[in-house]
Design brief:
201 residues, 2 domains, 3-stranded antiparallel beta sheet, two-stranded antiparallel ribbon
Length: 201
C-alpha cells in the first residue's frame, strides 16, 4: 500500500511506514528527538539495514526485484537524509522495469548492498568517534526549566574541563537550545576545552 504521508510503497502487512505514519490510526507518530545526533544515526542505520535485507532476500531471477528497488528507494527518500539520496536515486533507476536487463539489475543490487554496507561502517566509525569525544553532551539540563537537553556538537576536551550552565555566554562557551521552554542557554567552561567537534552524523 502507498503511504499517504510520504508516498512510500509498503507491503500489505506493514503496520507503519518508515516516515512514522500508522495505517491503523492514520496518524504520524512524532519521533523522539531528545538525543538528536544519536537518534538520527540510529534511524539512518536501521533504515539502511532494512534496505540491505530487502534486496538480499531477493532470489536469483526475482521477477519482483524492480518492486524491491522501488520500496528501498522510497524508504531512503522518506528519511529526508541528504547523504542517502544518492543511493535512493540509484535504486530508483534500477526500479524501472524496462530500463535494465535482469543481469544489470542483479549487478545494481550487488553494487547497492556494497555501498550500503560501506555507509553502515562509516556510521559505526563516526558513532565510536562521537562517543570517544563525550559522554555528557546528551545528558545536559536546561538552565531555565531543568528539562533534559542535548547537543550535536561538543569540545574535544569538554568532558575533562569543569563547566557550569549559565544564561549568558562566557569566554569558552557553547550555546544550547532547549526545545521545552524555547530558550537558549550556555555551557561555560572554566578554561579552553579545545575545538568543537560535531557529534551528529
Amino acid at each position: 500500500m502507498k503511504c499517504p504521508n510520504c508516498g512510500a510503497v509498503n507491503f500489505g502487512t506493514t503496520k507503519a511506514c518508515e516516515c512514522g505514519y500508522k495505517f491503523s490510526s492514520k496518524q504520524v507518530r512524532e519521533a523522539r528527538k531528545t538525543k538528536t545526533g544519536q537518534y538520527e544515526q540510529a534511524r539512518v542505520k536501521e533504515t539502511l539495514i532494512r534496505c540491505v535485507k530487502e534486496l538480499e532476500a531477493s532470489p536469483p531471477g526475482d521477477y519482483f526485484l524492480d518492486v524491491r528497488f522501488q520500496r528501498v528507494a522510497s524508504m531512503l527518500q522518506a528519511t529526508g537524509f541528504s547523504k542517502l539520496q544518492g543511493l535512493a536515486a540509484q535504486c530508483a533507476r534500477a526500479a524501472k522495469p524496462y530500463g535494465m536487463s535482469p543481469d544489470e539489475q542483479h549487478q545494481a543490487k550487488l553494487a547497492f548492498v556494497a555501498a550500503a554496507r560501506a555507509f553502515l561502517e562509516q556510521i559505526d566509525t563516526f558513532r565510536s568517534h562521537a562517543m570517544h569525544i563525550s559522554l555528557l553532551a546528551n545528558d545536559l539540563h536546561c538552565r531555565y526549566c531543568n528539562q533534559p537537553n542535548s547537543s550535536d556538537k561538543w569540545p574535544l576536551q569538554g568532558d575533562r574541563v569543569g563547566f557550569v550552565y549559565n544564561e549568558e555566554p562566557g569566554a569558552h562557551s557553547l550555546e544550547i537550545y532547549c526545545p521545552h521552554c524555547k530558550k537558549n542557554w550556555y555551557v561555560n567552561w572554566d578554561r579552553d576545552p579545545g575545538p568543537i567537534e560535531p557529534l551528529g552524523f
